Amino acid sequence: MSQVPGRATSSMRPDAASRWFSSSIFSPTSLLFRTILTLAVSALVIVVITVAAQRSFVVQPIAEQSADDEAALLVLTAQTWVELPPEARPYFELELAEQHDLIISAERPAHPPVRYDQSPFLSLLEEKLNARLGRPVTLSQGPDLVWATLPMAGYELLIGFSPTRREVQTLYFGIIIAVLGTAVVLITSAVIVLRVTRPLVQAAERADVFRGGANFDPLPEKGPKELVVLARNFNNMAREIAALLANRTTLLGGISHDLKTPLARMRLAVELLPKSVDRALVGRLERNLESMDELIANALKFARGAYEPAQPINLPAFVKDIASGHDPPIPTQCGNSPTEEIKVAPGALVRVLTNLVTNAEQHGGDAQIRLQGREIHVLDSGPGIPREHREAVFQPFFRLDRSRSTKTGGSGLGLAIVHQLCQIHGWRIEINDRLGGGTDVSVAV
Fold first, then answer.
1. Containing H/E element for 157?
2. DSSP readout, 23-74?
3. Both ends of the chain: CA-CA distance in Å?
4. What residues of the chain score a pLDDT lower than 50?
5. In which residue ranges of the chain is CATH 1.10.287.130 found?
6. Nearest Cα to Cα of residue 61 among 168, 178, 173
7. How confident is the model at residue 256, as a pLDDT?
8. Count of H helices and E strands in the chain?
9. CATH number of 14-209
């Protein structure tokens, strides 16, 4: 059914509440989502600080030391080659190629200069070479090797080495730490938070569907100490509330039942009054007795339907039976109604629908029943209920005679009893505007 602004809703069905809580555990407003988001941001900040610190205090010093060692090796290689006799130099060059992957060439290759923005290590290496030789050293980028031109003892030696030689991959290092660190934190936090939020979600579900019945499903008392204490206190509170409501209902039913006997005696006494008694006085007494009788009847109806066990019924046939048993019969339409049997408290549902139909006839006229799925709509064509009063009409003794009919009486308990029964049995009751004018009161079972 479409949502109408200003509607009045009394309760949520247990299955709908359970689905809502289950689906909302990962919603942006859930404790799990917010905790994981907070931990993720914290993990990201920690990773950024770690990468920055390692770059400043570990990676950069190591890179500088590596560049200095590489520069020392190149300078030593050039010095050794210059000092060796010409006939020994080929053997030395062969050993350098095999042992250190260094190539010495006497021909100057036509290669472009090195792009230092793509290799910070080569920039450090050039600085170290300049510092050791005391003169500018140029590096050129070949297809496979990087060539360093070293001026040494009248020679300009070209020494080639791999461009990835001792290169420090700072970017990859940071990405690995960021990805793996964040993943570990998220997985760990998800496991920890789920262990905490699952019992809290269960507690929220049970608290949402608890209506004071003695047959509530207690929370499992396991897990961390704080959650065990929470579950135990909730279970004790639920049992105490259930016992209190049961005692109240029993007391209400007993008092109402016991009052019927003295009320019958009072009726008999009024009937036996001599005719000389003022007829106006007798009429007032009879009206007061009728009001008392109606109050007692309403209290008994509530007491009988408060904790009635659910039974399987065919909802369309059940609604049609209630409508046809009314005098006169109430027009009924059954739309997409469930064909399978559903479990409801039949006595309580009869009292709810009978009260709503009677209320619609008295205050609106032209009462109708429309069944859509598991929602039963009782419609009338009266003046309707103002939106600001749609919550108040469910309160005991609240009267809306100025907005409805001024010719009707009533105890002011009808809709309050309907509201209480719907809450106890987990049904949802709403008051909306009827299309075309009037009131649409729906009960979802």
1. strand 155-161
2. HHTTSTTSHHHHHHHHHHHHHHHHHHHHHHHHIIIIIHHHHHHHHHHHHHHH
3. 14
4. 1-7, 10-23, 402-408
5. 211-307
6. 168
7. 67
8. 11, 12
9. 3.30.450.300
List C-alpha distances in Å: 146 to 16, 78, 381, 424: 70, 16, 93, 83
State residue 292's pLDDT score: 78
pLDDT value of position 2: 38
Q: What is the pLDDT of residue 212?
A: 64
Distance from C-alpha of 140 to C-alpha of 105, rounded to nearest angstrom? 13
Closest to 374 in 3D by CA, of 345, 348, 336: 336
Tell me the pLDDT tens digit for each residue of 12-35: 444 444 444 444 555 677 766 777
CATH homologous superfamily of 309-444: Histidine kinase-like ATPase, C-terminal domain (3.30.565.10)
**Which part of the chain has CATH 3.30.450.300?**
14-209
User: Does the predicted model carry a pTM greater than 0.90?
Assistant: no
What are 354-408's pLDDT values in tens digits?
889 888 888 777 888 999 888 999 998 888 888 888 888 888 777 765 444 434 4
Please report, for residues 286, 339, 367, 401, the alpha-carbon distance to residue 360 in angstroms, rounded to integers and kept in the order given: 26, 27, 6, 13
- 3-class SS of residue 441: strand
Phi, psi values for residue 119, rounded to 5°? -150, 90
211-307 is classed CATH 3.40.50.150? no
Residue with tokens 């990468």: 51
Q: Residue-wise over 384-404: b if at least 16 C-beta within 10 A, else e?
A: bbeeeebbebbeeeeebeeeb
- Report yes or no: 417 and 298 within 8 Å, Cβ to Cβ: yes
Q: Would you mind telling me the total number of residues written for the chain in this entry?
A: 445
Domain ranges in the chain with CATH number 3.30.565.10: 309-444
Structural element, H or E, at residue 375 = strand 375-380
